[in-house]
Amino acid sequence: MKRLIFIAFITLLTGSCKSSKQEKKVTSKIIIAPSAIDRPFTGHKKAAAIDSLKIDTSASKAETIITYAKQFEGVRYKWGGTTKNGMDCSGLVFESFRASNILLPRISRDMAKKGNEVPLNKVKNGDLLFFKTQNRRNTINHVGLVITSNNKNIKFIHATTQRGVIVSSLTENYWKTSFVEARRIL
Question: Could you tell me which residue ranges the NlpC/P60 domain spans (predicted)?
């Protein structure tokens, strides 16, 4: 009888340790930009490894911003959106720069007042392209982030009302005719 009471007591004691609330699993995605440290070492001397770490900080900052922006590719358009639930063009640029501790205005026409204007043949990755699409006010109302550039073909990531966050080329007729200016923030 004592043994039965002891077993019941232990069962009651261990059974009451569980919480009635169920825990929700939280998953998060950590995005780490590629860096010189991630590159394989191919030299034979330590000096070569140190030289490989000497990188242009504006170029690496640009690649970090581009990598961050690319995670939103395919996200639907949402006016005023700044998350994977929906994104607009200036929200994409604003959030991508903010993730690298660079604060820009939230609206594309105000972003176009920051940084320095650059000619198209000098555009680099991380620069911003500004457009006047068919709007009544005839003001800048669209922005894209340059992800690859060479003199003949500039590709940029941006959010469109029809297709969401996509990569386009400045050689496309619509974007070529709507283009206003390029600006460098970095």
Answer: 59-186
